[in-house]
Protein backbone atom coordinates (compact mmCIF):
# COMPACT_ATOMS: atom_id res chain seq x y z
CA UNK A 1 0.00 0.00 0.00
CA UNK A 2 1.55 3.28 -1.03
CA UNK A 3 1.17 6.58 0.75
CA UNK A 4 -0.65 9.47 -0.90
CA UNK A 5 1.38 12.60 -1.62
CA UNK A 6 2.01 14.61 1.55
CA UNK A 7 0.28 17.65 0.04
CA UNK A 8 -2.92 15.60 -0.23
CA UNK A 9 -2.63 14.78 3.47
CA UNK A 10 -2.26 18.49 4.24
CA UNK A 11 -5.23 19.40 2.04
CA UNK A 12 -7.42 16.72 3.61
CA UNK A 13 -6.56 17.31 7.28
CA UNK A 14 -5.26 20.84 7.89
CA UNK A 15 -8.54 21.91 9.52
CA UNK A 16 -8.47 18.93 11.90
CA UNK A 17 -4.88 19.68 12.93
CA UNK A 18 -5.62 23.39 13.44
CA UNK A 19 -8.79 22.72 15.45
CA UNK A 20 -7.08 20.19 17.70
CA UNK A 21 -4.09 22.47 18.29
CA UNK A 22 -6.43 25.34 19.11
CA UNK A 23 -8.39 23.16 21.53
CA UNK A 24 -5.25 21.93 23.28
CA UNK A 25 -3.15 25.09 23.59
CA UNK A 26 -5.53 27.97 22.87
CA UNK A 27 -5.63 30.45 20.01
CA UNK A 28 -2.37 32.25 20.80
CA UNK A 29 -0.06 29.24 20.33
CA UNK A 30 -2.22 27.06 18.06
CA UNK A 31 -0.50 28.07 14.82
CA UNK A 32 2.95 27.32 16.27
CA UNK A 33 1.86 23.90 17.49
CA UNK A 34 0.13 23.08 14.19
CA UNK A 35 3.22 24.14 12.24
CA UNK A 36 5.44 22.00 14.47
CA UNK A 37 3.07 19.06 13.95
CA UNK A 38 3.19 19.43 10.16
CA UNK A 39 7.00 19.68 10.23
CA UNK A 40 7.32 16.53 12.34
CA UNK A 41 4.75 14.72 10.20
CA UNK A 42 6.62 15.62 7.02
CA UNK A 43 9.88 14.31 8.48
CA UNK A 44 8.28 11.03 9.59
CA UNK A 45 5.98 10.54 6.57
CA UNK A 46 8.42 8.62 4.33
CA UNK A 47 9.01 6.08 7.13
CA UNK A 48 5.32 5.22 7.58
CA UNK A 49 4.56 1.60 6.74
CA UNK A 50 0.84 1.94 6.10
CA UNK A 51 -1.60 4.49 4.76
CA UNK A 52 -4.26 3.32 7.21
CA UNK A 53 -5.45 5.80 9.83
CA UNK A 54 -3.41 8.74 8.55
CA UNK A 55 -5.80 11.19 10.23
CA UNK A 56 -5.38 9.45 13.58
CA UNK A 57 -1.61 9.41 13.18
CA UNK A 58 -1.59 13.10 12.29
CA UNK A 59 -3.75 14.06 15.28
CA UNK A 60 -1.50 12.00 17.55
CA UNK A 61 1.51 13.95 16.25
CA UNK A 62 -0.42 17.18 16.92
CA UNK A 63 -1.29 16.08 20.47
CA UNK A 64 2.35 15.25 21.20
CA UNK A 65 3.46 18.64 19.87
CA UNK A 66 0.89 20.31 22.16
CA UNK A 67 2.21 18.34 25.14
CA UNK A 68 5.76 19.40 24.21
CA UNK A 69 4.53 22.99 24.13
CA UNK A 70 3.05 22.64 27.63
CA UNK A 71 6.29 21.08 28.92
CA UNK A 72 8.37 23.93 27.48
CA UNK A 73 5.99 26.47 29.02
CA UNK A 74 6.38 24.83 32.45
CA UNK A 75 10.18 24.81 32.15
CA UNK A 76 10.42 28.44 31.02
CA UNK A 77 10.54 29.67 34.63
CA UNK A 78 11.86 26.96 36.96
CA UNK A 79 11.34 29.13 40.05
CA UNK A 80 7.67 29.77 39.44
CA UNK A 81 5.26 28.10 41.84
CA UNK A 82 3.56 25.27 39.87
CA UNK A 83 0.26 25.99 41.59
CA UNK A 84 0.24 29.53 40.27
CA UNK A 85 0.67 28.57 36.61
CA UNK A 86 -2.33 29.48 34.53
CA UNK A 87 -3.97 26.80 32.46
CA UNK A 88 -3.82 27.53 28.74
CA UNK A 89 -7.17 28.86 27.64
CA UNK A 90 -9.19 26.29 25.73
CA UNK A 91 -11.56 27.86 23.26
CA UNK A 92 -14.24 26.57 20.96
CA UNK A 93 -13.16 25.76 17.43
CA UNK A 94 -14.03 28.57 14.99
CA UNK A 95 -16.44 26.37 13.01
CA UNK A 96 -18.84 26.21 15.96
CA UNK A 97 -20.45 28.98 17.97
CA UNK A 98 -18.31 29.73 21.00
CA UNK A 99 -19.58 28.67 24.38
CA UNK A 100 -17.20 30.40 26.76
CA UNK A 101 -18.67 28.82 29.90
CA UNK A 102 -18.29 25.27 28.56
CA UNK A 103 -14.73 25.83 27.37
CA UNK A 104 -13.75 27.48 30.64
CA UNK A 105 -14.93 24.33 32.44
CA UNK A 106 -13.08 22.13 29.94
CA UNK A 107 -9.90 24.15 30.58
CA UNK A 108 -10.33 23.58 34.34
CA UNK A 109 -10.38 19.77 33.97
CA UNK A 110 -7.29 17.79 35.00
CA UNK A 111 -4.85 17.73 32.05
CA UNK A 112 -5.34 14.07 31.04
CA UNK A 113 -9.14 14.36 31.19
CA UNK A 114 -9.02 17.63 29.22
CA UNK A 115 -6.77 16.06 26.59
CA UNK A 116 -8.99 12.99 26.32
CA UNK A 117 -12.14 15.09 25.86
CA UNK A 118 -10.52 17.39 23.30
CA UNK A 119 -9.09 14.45 21.32
CA UNK A 120 -12.40 12.58 21.47
CA UNK A 121 -14.78 15.39 20.58
CA UNK A 122 -12.75 18.14 18.89
CA UNK A 123 -10.37 15.72 17.21
CA UNK A 124 -13.24 13.28 16.58
CA UNK A 125 -11.05 10.29 17.44
CA UNK A 126 -12.35 6.94 18.62
CA UNK A 127 -11.22 5.59 22.00
CA UNK A 128 -8.44 3.48 20.48
CA UNK A 129 -6.93 6.53 18.76
CA UNK A 130 -7.34 8.63 21.93
CA UNK A 131 -5.58 5.87 23.88
CA UNK A 132 -2.74 5.78 21.36
CA UNK A 133 -2.35 9.56 21.52
CA UNK A 134 -2.32 9.56 25.33
CA UNK A 135 -0.15 6.46 25.64
CA UNK A 136 -2.77 4.48 27.55
CA UNK A 137 -5.35 1.73 26.97
CA UNK A 138 -8.73 2.19 25.26
CA UNK A 139 -10.44 1.35 28.57
CA UNK A 140 -8.52 4.09 30.34
CA UNK A 141 -9.33 6.59 27.59
CA UNK A 142 -13.03 5.73 28.02
CA UNK A 143 -12.66 6.25 31.76
CA UNK A 144 -10.91 9.61 31.32
CA UNK A 145 -13.62 10.83 28.93
CA UNK A 146 -16.38 9.49 31.18
CA UNK A 147 -14.95 11.14 34.30
CA UNK A 148 -14.47 14.42 32.43
CA UNK A 149 -18.05 14.38 31.14
CA UNK A 150 -19.38 13.59 34.62
CA UNK A 151 -17.43 16.54 36.03
CA UNK A 152 -18.70 18.82 33.27
CA UNK A 153 -22.29 17.68 33.87
CA UNK A 154 -21.99 18.49 37.57
CA UNK A 155 -20.34 21.85 36.90
CA UNK A 156 -22.65 22.94 34.11
CA UNK A 157 -26.06 21.81 35.36
CA UNK A 158 -28.32 24.70 36.25
CA UNK A 159 -29.56 24.18 39.83
CA UNK A 160 -32.92 25.65 38.87
CA UNK A 161 -33.33 23.11 36.06
CA UNK A 162 -32.19 20.19 38.22
CA UNK A 163 -34.73 20.82 40.98
CA UNK A 164 -37.75 22.27 39.23
CA UNK A 165 -40.32 23.11 41.92
CA UNK A 166 -43.67 21.39 41.76
CA UNK A 167 -46.57 23.84 41.87
CA UNK A 168 -48.96 22.40 44.48
CA UNK A 169 -51.69 24.84 43.46
CA UNK A 170 -51.69 23.65 39.85
CA UNK A 171 -54.77 21.64 38.90
CA UNK A 172 -54.21 17.93 38.33
CA UNK A 173 -55.87 16.32 35.33
CA UNK A 174 -57.31 13.16 36.89
CA UNK A 175 -58.94 11.99 33.66
CA UNK A 176 -55.55 11.64 32.03
CA UNK A 177 -54.08 9.87 35.04
CA UNK A 178 -57.08 7.48 35.31
CA UNK A 179 -56.80 6.58 31.64
CA UNK A 180 -53.15 5.71 32.04
CA UNK A 181 -53.67 3.72 35.28
CA UNK A 182 -52.98 -0.02 34.93
CA UNK A 183 -55.93 -2.38 35.14
CA UNK A 184 -55.77 -4.88 38.00
CA UNK A 185 -56.67 -8.32 36.60
CA UNK A 186 -57.82 -9.55 40.04
CA UNK A 187 -60.31 -6.70 40.50
CA UNK A 188 -63.94 -7.36 39.52
CA UNK A 189 -64.94 -5.82 36.21
CA UNK A 190 -68.32 -4.66 37.56
CA UNK A 191 -68.09 -2.53 40.71
CA UNK A 192 -71.74 -3.44 41.62
CA UNK A 193 -71.03 -7.18 41.49
CA UNK A 194 -69.40 -8.30 44.80
CA UNK A 195 -68.54 -11.79 43.49
From TrEMBL:
Residues 106-152 form the RNA polymerase sigma factor 70 region 4 type domain. Signal peptide: none annotated. Residues 173-189 have a biased composition (Low complexity). Keywords: DNA-binding, Sigma factor, Transcription, Transcription regulation. Residues 9-75 form the RNA polymerase sigma-70 region domain. Residues 173-195 are annotated as: Disordered. GO terms for molecular function: DNA binding; sigma factor activity. One of its GO terms (biological process) is DNA-templated transcription initiation. This is Sigma-70 family RNA polymerase sigma factor. It comes from Phycicoccus avicenniae.
